């Protein structure tokens, strides 16, 4: 498995974004160093998911600049699983793998505790926690340069969460990642720098 391509810091400078009359980001400056994990925390509505969507190119800021994103590959675990519901778990993971790595799908799913008949069921028949594990394995099975994880462990039961968190920590080694979470223990487990966003100009670190 080849490593990610060389990266420069990803820098958001004076980034602002509004939706209608609601100002979500106001002059935000934020820097993500290559190979590090940053946890974005803060109350609902302060723009954590908006930052993630801007980094993924799904939203454009109304003002400000972004640097360091040219030519990098990205992967994401969204708040919604965004799986192909008619396909089984194996097929969902294989969608993102190169042909010569398609056989790796089963081992990736096993690492998050999905084996046997569960990986052959359409994901629409899986529990919410099982679907979450498929979504995480699919996002991390490829060596993207930048990984966005938006509340990735939501819906996991107490038995499976430690295994999945250990898998995520291993797969993120050496990569740049952004974790959105309300749980400080998740940020601590992944060794993340914590940035707390707030309403109004700037941010609180």
List keywords for this structure.
3-stranded antiparallel beta sheet; 5-stranded parallel beta sheet; 205 residues; 6 helices; alpha/beta; single chain
Query: SSE order in H/E notation?
Result: EEEHEEHHHEHEHE
Question: Which range does the strand content fall in?
Answer: 15-25%
How many DSSP helices? Answer: 6
Mean pLDDT rating: 92
Uncertain stretches of 5 or more adjacent residues: 1-5
Look at the helices and sheets and give the structural class.
alpha/beta
Using only C-alpha atoms, the radius of gyration works out to 17 Å
Give the N-terminus to C-terminus distance in angstroms.
35 Å
Largest sheet: 5 strands, parallel
- Strand order across the biggest sheet? 5-6-7-3-8
- Label the overall shape: globular
The beta-strand count equals 8
Describe this structure in words.
The chain has a domain at 85-141. The longest helix has 13 residues, at 128-140. Strands 5-6-7-3-8 form a five-stranded parallel β-sheet, with helices on both faces. The chain has a three-stranded antiparallel β-sheet with strand order 2-1-4, covered by helices on one side. Helix content is 25%, strand content 24%. It is built from six helices and eight strands. It is an alpha/beta fold and 205 residues long. Helix 3 (104-111) packs across helix 4 (128-140).
């Amino acid at each position: 498995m080849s490593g990610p391509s060389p990266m420069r810091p990803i820098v958001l400078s004076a980034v602002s974004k509004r939706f209608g009359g609601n100002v979500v980001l106001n002059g935000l400056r934020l820097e993500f160093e290559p190979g590090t994990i940053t946890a974005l925390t803060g109350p609902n509505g302060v723009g954590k998911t908006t930052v993630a969507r801007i980094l993924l190119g799904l939203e454009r800021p109304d003002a400000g600049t972004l640097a360091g994103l040219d030519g990098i590959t990205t992967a994401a675990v969204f708040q919604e699983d965004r799986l192909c519901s008619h396909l089984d778990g194996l097929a969902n993971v294989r969608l993102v793998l190169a042909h010569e790595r398609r056989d790796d799908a089963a081992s990736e799913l096993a690492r998050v505790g999905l084996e046997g008949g569960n990986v052959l069921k359409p994901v629409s028949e899986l529990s919410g926690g099982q679907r979450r594990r498929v979504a995480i394995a699919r996002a991390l099975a490829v060596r993207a340069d930048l990984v966005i994880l938006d509340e990735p462990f939501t819906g996991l039961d107490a038995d499976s969460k430690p295994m999945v968190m250990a898998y995520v920590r291993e797969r993120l080694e050496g990569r740049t990642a952004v974790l959105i979470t309300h749980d400080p223990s998740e940020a601590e487990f992944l060794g993340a720098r914590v940035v707390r966003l707030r309403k109004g100009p700037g941010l609180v670190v």
